[in-house]
Design brief:
By secondary structure, the chain is mainly alpha-helical. The protein has one domain (24-70, 88-260, 270-487): MFS general substrate transporter like domains (Growth Hormone, Chain: A), CATH 1.20.1250. The chain has helices spanning 2-7, 23-52, 56-62, 88-116, 118-142, 146-161, 164-173, 181-210, 214-234, 247-257, 270-274, 277-306, 312-342, 348-369, 377-390, 392-399, 401-405, 410-421, 424-435, 441-465, 476-487. It is a multi-pass membrane protein. Residues 30-470 form the Major facilitator superfamily (MFS) profile domain. Its main location: membrane.
Length: 488
């Protein structure tokens, strides 16, 4: 890496642009590809796990109420690879091990990114995820303690992928001026949605084609490895180290970022952050989004499969289609928000609250309406699609707010916010298991209305206490110096 940095050192600023796009957009595209690679690894394991064992839920719902009189879904496809006799509780423990590691990985990931730079943290967590992903099928095929070994590997994989978003946000804070924040963030955040599409569209087909669930691990780890090489060459933690930026772009970023974010390490104002009401509003709002995100990932395919009686492959395919629209809307909403703010049509705080409202209440309403259309497949799919697509407003409402409050500590903030946001990944599956017993419409209504209430409460909290303005503790050291001057 030092070899390339020596050749392409930032002291060689180009007077004229050597690429069609400014380097800040190149960085956004690079980060987007990285998020796509690692996020696909994260969401793919649930699909792979289905093919590693015989899912107990197939047995449970086979004797439950047949709500809609469509053809029965077929049994899971058989692969030639080894299968494991794990109970449903075993599978839950495996998935929870990942989320426990994912939860814990955010906090050091954010702190280390702000202290040492997001590039090194993102590179290390990507490398660790690649190695662990490759080792997973190898260990399972050779270890005599398959179940416990997998729990350990999944916890470590969760820990490494937990550093992804904090490091990405730390890098974004050093590359994204306020006037471009919606556009660049939209380009990066849409990758998570494309990751869902790629997983649902590719994983099943790849397993069926190769007749081995292990092939998915090798496919996605190879994609991540290719990205890592490109990232090590061209990626940079801050615009001051950019190797493709022009003198003009560097001056532009200096004017817009120099007073907001510093390359030097700054002591984290933990006490100020803990008592910051706008930060707590961000935490609550993000918790609500991650709640509905896990609901859409887990509940929608199951509703299509066990209520509307689609087969498994079609259920995941239909559930993935709206995420393509969601990804496109995430980008377009970013451009639209920047247009509104740059033309002074709306204040930053107002825009964050309005977009958050659409991104929280909208999906909750359409999701709650699904059981009321009963067995109408077309109506249910339309409601699911609109609900999923409306979560795009969240990314330009709440998610981008981590860059608003304190750019100097954006990695740390994202570590806290998204770390707490990982908790619904553990809670949501248990709630569904407790409420959905006989697979009736009334049970699904109760479940979806519970989700609606949670989303409404988190949205109201953000509207009441959220802010889009830079907080005083972003420059904690300057604030202390001014306080000493006033005291003297």
């Amino acid at each position: 890496m030092q070899f390339f940095n020596k050749i392409l050192r930032p002291s060689h600023r180009f007077k004229y642009r050597v690429c069609v796009l400014p380097q800040r957009y190149i960085m956004a595209l690079l980060l987007s590809c990285g998020v796509l690679a690692l996020f696909t690894i994260r969401v793919s394991f649930q699909v792979v796990l289905f093919h590693m064992v015989v899912p107990p839920k197939i047995i449970r719902f086979a004797n439950a109420t047949i709500t809609c009189k469509y053809s029965e879904p077929p049994t899971p496809p058989i692969t030639t690879a080894k299968k494991y006799d794990w109970s449903e509780s075993h599978q839950v423990h495996i998935l929870q091990a990942f989320f426990l590691g994912y939860f814990l990985g955010h906090f050091p990931g954010g702190y280390l990114s702000d202290r040492y730079g997001g590039k090194i943290v993102l590179s290390c967590c990507t490398f660790a995820t690649i190695i662990l992903t490759i080792l997973t099928p190898v260990i399972l095929s050779s270890s005599s303690m398959d179940y416990y070994t997998l729990i350990g590997v999944q916890a470590l994989t969760g820990f490494s992928t937990g550093m992804l978003f904090p490091s990405v946000h730390s890098i974004l804070a050093h590359w994204t001026p306020a006037c471009d924040r919606g556009k660049l963030s939209g380009i990066v955040f849409c990758a998570a949605q494309f990751g869902v599409v790629l997983n649902d569209a590719v994983s099943f087909s790849f397993i069926l084609h190769t007749e081995a669930w292990s092939s998915v691990f090798y496919l996605y780890s190879s994609i991540a490895a290719i990205w890592l090489v490109v990232w090590l060459i061209f990626g940079q933690a801050t615009y001051r180290h950019g190797i493709l930026s022009t003198q003009e772009e560097n001056a532009y970023l200096d004017r817009n970022l120099a007073d907001l974010v510093s390359d030097n390490y700054r002591k984290v104002p933990w006490k100020k952050m803990f008592f910051s009401i706008p930060l707590w509003a961000l935490i609550v709002s993000h918790f609500g989004h991650m709640w509905i995100w896990h609901v859409l990932i887990l509940d929608v395919p199951e509703y299509l499969m066990y209520v509307l009686r689609y087969n498994m492959r079609n259920s995941y395919f239909l559930a993935a289609l709206p995420y393509s629209m969601l990804a496109v809307l995430t980008i377009s909403n970013g451009f639209f928000m920047d247009y509104l703010i740059n033309n002074k049509l709306v204040k930053i705080t107002t825009s964050r609250k309005v977009f958050t409202t659409f991104g929280a209440v909208g999906p909750a309403i359409f999701l709650a309406a699904v059981p009321f259309v009963h067995c109408s497949r077309e109506a249910a799919i339309i409601l699911f699609a609109v609900g999923i697509s409306m979560t795009s407003f969240y990314y330009t409402g709440t998610r981008i707010n981590t860059l608003d409050l304190a750019p100097n500590y954006s990695g740390t903030i994202m570590g806290i916010v998204n770390g707490i946001g990982a908790i619904p990944g553990v809670i949501v599956p248990h709630i569904e298991d407790d409420l959905i017993i006989n697979n009736t419409f009334n049970e699904w209504k109760a479940l979806f209305w519970l989700h609606f209430f949670i989303l409404l409460c988190t949205c109201i909290f953000f509207i009441s206490f959220g802010s889009g303005e830079v907080q005083p503790w972003n420059d904690y050291e300057l604030e202390n110096r001014l306080a000493h001057i006033d005291a003297s």
